[in-house]
Structure formats: C-alpha cells, structure tokens
Amino acid sequence: MSRKLVRRLLQRTLPRHCLITDPVALKPYETDGLTAIRQPPWLVALPETESQVAAVLRICREHAVPVVPRGAGTGLSGGARPVEGGVVVGLSRLNKILEVDLDNCVACLQPGVRNLAISEAVAEHGLYYAPDPSSQIACSIGGNVAENSGGVHCLKYGLTVHNVVGLKVLMMTGEVLHLGGRGQELDGYDLLALMCGSEGMLGVVTEVWVKLLPVPPVKKVLLAAFAQVSAAAAAVSEIITAGLIPAGLEMMDRLAIQAAEAYVHAGYPLDAQAILLCELDGVAQEVEADAALVERLLRDLGAIDVQIADDPQAQARLWLGRKAAFPAVGRLAPDYYCMDGTIPRYRLAEVLQQIESLSVEYKLRVANVFHAGDGNLHPLILYDADIPGELEKAEAMGGRILELCVAAGGTITGEHGVGVEKLDQMCVQFNSDELEQFERLKAAFDPAGIANPGKAIPTLTRCAEIGGMHVHNGKLPFRNLERF
Amino acid sequence: MADRDISDELQESIAQARDAGVSVAIAGSGSKEFLVHSDTETTQSRLLSVAEHTGVVAYRPAELVITARAGTPLRELAALLARANQMLPFEPPLFRGMGTLGGAIASGLAGSGRPWRGSVRDAVLGVVMINGLGQKLTFGGQVMKNVAGYDVSRLQVGAFGTLGVLLEISIRVIPKPASEMTLKLELDCLESLSKMREWARKPLPITASCYHDNMLYVRLSGAETAVLAGASETGGEIAGDLNWWDKLNDHDLPFFKEPGSLLRQMSPPAQELVNDACVLEWSGAKRWFYGDESEYHGTGTKLFGAGFAQVAVSSPAADPVRGDVQRRIKQAFDPDNVLNPELLRANEAA
Ligand SMILES: Cc1cc2nc3c(=O)[nH]c(=O)nc-3n(C[C@H](O)[C@H](O)[C@H](O)COP(=O)(O)OP(=O)(O)OC[C@H]3O[C@@H](n4cnc5c(N)ncnc54)[C@H](O)[C@@H]3O)c2cc1C
Questions:
Q1: Which candidate in A149, A437, A480 is best for mutational testing of the B interface (most B CBs within 10 A)?
Q2: Model pTM greater than 0.90?
Q3: Does ipTM exceed 0.85?
Q4: What strands lie across the sheet with A305-309, from one edge to the other?
C-alpha cells in the first residue's frame, strides 16, 4: 500500500475536520482506557455519516489498510488501541437516536450514542435501557456491543447481548449485514449474538436496536458487613439459592472499603473484612417480600451490621462508596491495574484467598471491588509505574490471577474483553483447534484480515512462544503451525 | 437419569464419515423431524444419533447453571431442576416429552415467556461440540459472564447442527416463581394487541401474554402479593386450564392442527395484518396464522416447519448477504459438508 495515496484518498472523501493527521491532535487516540499500552495512530477518521464510514472502509479495503473501530475509547483491554499503519475509525460523531418505537419498546441508535443518553432520552416514557457499565456517561453503544458490556445490574437484566435486538454491520468485504430490528427473533444463524463481544473484528456496527424496559417503580438497597470474606461469599450463594435474583449484588473487601470511606465517607463499617451491597427492584410487593428474606438471610449468616435504604438519598449514599471505589483505590497508589476474571460463585472465597497469596508473593497490594452475583472479579493491583519493573510485575501477577480464574472453572474476561491485554491468557483458555476455529470464523467475515487485526485472538505462533499452549486430548498442539 | 458419555464414539463417527466422504444426519429423539424435513430417502447421509449421550455433568443450584449432555431428555432435566425449585428460562416445547436438550438448543425454539425471560440463546453459557473436522471444541463456560473469544456457543442455537454436533451444553437457569396466575380477558385481536403493548411499557410481573380466539391470556409470576397486585391492574378472570401455556408451546391447541399452511411471523405485525383468527404472542412480536407464504414477502413471515435451509437461505424473502455469510460460516466449521448437509451446504451457489 502507498500511505500517501491512501491519505490523499481519505482527504478527498472526508470533510477536512473529519480526518486527523496532526501528531498533536492524534495523541489522545494512542490508547483507550488501558493507558499502559500505547501506539501512535497513523490517521484518525471521524466520519459524521454512515456513508462516510462506508467510503472510508472501501478505501481501506482497496488498499489493504487495517481498520480500528473506536467508540468512546473507554475500553479496558486495548481493543481500540491503534495498529501500526492502520486507520482508526472513530464512530463518536454518529450519535443520533434514530427512532424510539413505543409500541414495541425498542429504540434504534447510531453507534456513537452514549449508553446513558439512551435511558435519558426515554425516561419521559417511564422506560430505560438496562445494561449500565460504570462508564455509562461516556461509553458508546457501539463499544458496548463490541465488548458485550455488562454492569452492576446484569445479574437480573443481562449483558448487552440480552438487550440488543438488531444491528446493521458494514463488513470489510463491502457487504452490509442487516440483523434483526424491531422484531425479536431471527431465522438462520444467530449472527446478532456473534457480533456481541466480537471486539470490532468482524465489522463496523453502524446501527443498534435496543430493548427498552419499564423503569422498576420500587428499589431497596441493603448493605451487610461481614467479619470474614468467606461469610460474605457464602451469603451470595445463599441469596441465590433462596430463589432471589437481586438487581445487583456487589462485594468490596477491606482495602476497598477503607479506600472508599477515606474518599467519599459513605458510612461503610471500617471494621468489616467485606461488605455486600444488594439492590432489589421491581413492583412494591415483590421488593418488600424479597428484602425481608434477604435481611433475614444476611443476619442468619452472621452479618455484623445490616443497613437498609428505602429512599433514593439513602440508597445513593450506600452506592456512593461502590461507585467511587475505583478512583478511591486509585488514591492508594500511583497506578492500578484492573483485572476482569469470572469464576463460579461457589469458589469465591477460595479464589480471593489465592489472590491474597499472590499479593504477598509479588509484594503488591490488591483491592477487590466486584460483581459478586455474577462471580465477576475485578481485582485492582496497586503499583507504581515509576519504579522500574513494577508495571511488568503487576502484569505478571494479573496474568497469574486470570490463570487462577481459568483453573477454577471460570474465564479470563467477564466484560472488559481480550483486546491486546489478555492475548497470552487466551492461550491458556483455548487450545490450538479452538483458536484456529476462531480464525476461520473471522475469515468468513473479513477474509483480508483488516478489521482490528492483532486483537482478541492470539496467533498460534504467539501461544507457542509463550509456551502457554496445553496439550489437548494427547494431541500435539502445534501441528498446524506452519500454516501461519 | 441415564448417564452415558459417548463423545469418543461420536467423534470417531464424524472422522470416519469425513474420511469416507459421506455426511451424517444428526438426530436427537427425532421429535422435531417435522421442522427440518430432511429428505432422508434421497440422501446418502449416515444417521448419527446423539440420543444415547445423556446425563447431567454438573449442577449446583446456587450457581444457576446446569451442564448436561445433548441427549438428555428435556423432561428429565425439567424434573431435576424442579426439585431445586428452578426451571429452564426459555420454556422449550417438550413435544410430548420426547425432546432432548441438544435438540432444543439446535432448533432454538422458545416458549411464551421469551420477551421476559429470554430466548434460548440468551440462556446458553457454553458448549462442548464436534465440528465438521471431527475436532472436539469447548467454547464459553459455566459462568454467567464470559467474553473471551467469539461467542461460538450462542451461534449453535438455531443452527440445527449444521456447524457442529453438540455434546454438552451449559445453560443458565432461573428460580421458579413463588406463585403464578393466568388470567383471561375477552378481547378481540386488535384490542389485545394494544393491551399487550400497553402492559409492556408498565412494570407488571407479566411472564407471558397471548391472544387466541377472542381471548387475551396473561400470566403473572412472582411473590404472591405481587401477583395479586398485578392481577388487579390487568383485570380479567382466572383461567381454569393450568396447562394452557404448555399446550400453546407444544402446539397442542386445536388451532395448530387445522389444515393449511401454518405461517409464523417473527416481527411485529402492521395493524392491518392482524385479524381475529390469528394467535399473537410475545407482546405481539410473534404471530401464527394460516395463509399463503408468497403473499407475505418482506414481513418476516415464514412457513413453519418448512425446513431450515428454506427458512434460512434459499427462500426468496431471505437476505442474500446473510445467506452468503452463513455459507462462509458453515465452511469455517464444516468445510467438507459432513454435518446435516441437506440443511445448509457450505459451497453451493445461492
Ligand atoms: C471507569 C470505567 C468503568 C468501566 N466499567 C465497566 C463496567 O462496569 N462494565 C463493563 O462491561 N465495562 C466497563 N468499562 C469498560 C468500557 O467502558 C466498555 O468496554 C465499553 O463498552 C467500551 O465502550 P467504548 O465506546 O468506550 O468503546 P471503545 O473503547 O472505543 O472500543 C471498544 C472496542 O469496541 C470496538 N468498537 C467500538 N465501536 C465499534 C463499532 N461501532 N463497531 C465495531 N466495533 C466497535 C473497538 O474496536 C474496541 O475493540 C469501564 C471502563 C472505564 C474506563
């Protein structure tokens, strides 16, 4: 490819303010929310219409230039990080709500619409969009689809995949895929589910249909403090065994509690080893019945303190510490590294104990703030990037934590995606046959391999190099290596 | 429950078939034969029965997840879950108790609770499968949230075995509601449609609604007090038939046995299309009626039981881009057309 030619074609295609070429203006696009990993972009295109997106993709296809789709850049795994010689295609200016269909309780959005903006736009009708990543004021619905993002309420309301009913996808082949829409079910292969969590590697999403739900009329938030992490973990299982699905069920450990208290004074008990936050929502009678049951369970399980918040102010106060937990932990050390493994809930106490041992081994502190109801851990590893070797140590320890999650029957990522960050751990979770199946599936959408290359799926060569590949069914793992 | 792992034999059969250049026709119990209409007389396919591959691999009620082998009968699975006060969220038709878990996943048919409790694929968390190359592969897992790699597990739902032989499936389950009530209101079809839509915008404990024969049925589930409060809002009288929803899901109502072509529309109907003779479910998003398919192009209407290939790809109403992408995906999983090739061929021109 001729870089000069491609740049000239893009300049001819896009209005001047839609193409960034100046090194200073390119700077913010070097990274997403995973700021430790950077790559200067070559060019950033910020189209304002779908046809401009299509035109940019056509130029890239004709000249075999890699394309990195980008939403709001809040991703935590480096998914939107530029690739060498590639064009970053930012979708943030396609930010219109195209339609709200109250008959069928769905809305059609451009990909750059911010997550929270959806709920704000339909609030007057008593409706909302359920998935609520903590980044919801900033992150885009296109990014949510690409990461299959979750949030605090996905135990009850599901992930992005459960709340998206239609997509329009511009493929790298120039084809346009229309999937679903107003209706609820598709015949044929479920390409809609496949697109969710595909990290921009199968195509560029230019329209998203989402499901709208009635706002639950009543909410209650309970906070329970425990003298032992294992008791808090047991309470999570008991609540679910009792037949309840709380809207949210979050846990914080001692270090996180103390950081949050010092930062926002939410009134969390400082003598606790762990707290649980349990939110119940729904119709009044249901919430009343459930709250009484949860309170009884928590006390029976030895909670040293239970607080119940009925009104919005008191609820906001209980949530305050949880919502501020990341920045609060951020004050404890110059840097922190956020992990995202998921495990079966019954192994919570055990895995948290093992993380504690790793913390001792690596001499790095770890705070835990996480979606306990889903078994989705977010260990925050504290480090100081200015101390030579600490970043590498934090990364190594993070890798060990993810391997623990796999060994416990879980996964290396619950909601943040693989991106460039967890490629090595993919070699632990999947064998070579499985990784090759992923590659062939990608090729069905993107035979030239120009959609966000180098993300999410490691090459077999990489896995061979790190030696992480395991022998599967007694077969030699690298028999197909020469094909790469 | 029978507990038998024949995955090695199944893998061997696929490898042999591939080597011999023949294909296999995957079958569970055969309860959904009418859905796929594979023309077994004219094909050279070997029968590959998964029915013997049965048993629950893992089930801890507190995890809300069950992992079972594909041949496990749905009826047995439902009974096991019921003992822990849990259920499959997608209420699959049981087809007179014959259906297997693998068949339910491969066909992807969800019952009347779908808009509230989710579709079949919504509940799938992970699979172990054999692709057309005879490789045994694991995707997804047994946890609620998992975004490592492409979502190949959910891709198997509704693929009718054309991408792989399902061996094990992990499913998210839900608690059974403490109480449940079905009410009926005498309304015509249009009135029912607007009522359903009005309800969908309100926080009511509804888990199913259906218009049939000048009657609107609604199911309320949850804490007893919540159900009673919901009932006072929806109105209606208590429906006597406790198995009404099962009969609907299993197509055991007389409506489904009438002569003629049964059509299924899977997108919200235009007002002028609904009439009192149809059945409406899912707040209006699914409609059953009798008619001539060719009159409904572009409305999301298909002949029910016309076969997967026809439904998915070659029907004139199908989207050619999706058809091409589907064939390339088939190629990616089964390049030699070993698995259920009558349903979808990888390398055939459209
Ligand atoms: C403070 C903070 C809190 C967070 N909390 C949560 C949380 O609770 N839950 C959670 O799940 N995540 C969370 N995240 C992670 C992040 O916000 C989500 O992954 C989010 O969905 C990313 O959206 P984005 O618009 O910023 O996407 P980006 O970061 O810009 O991109 C993410 C990926 O999507 C691709 N992409 C973006 N747009 C498109 C498109 N239109 N078509 C195709 N591909 C596209 C990109 O190529 C990239 O691979 C958090 C992040 C931060 C910084």
A1: A437
A2: yes
A3: yes
A4: A305-309, A218-226, A274-282, A248-253, A366-370, A379-383, A335-338
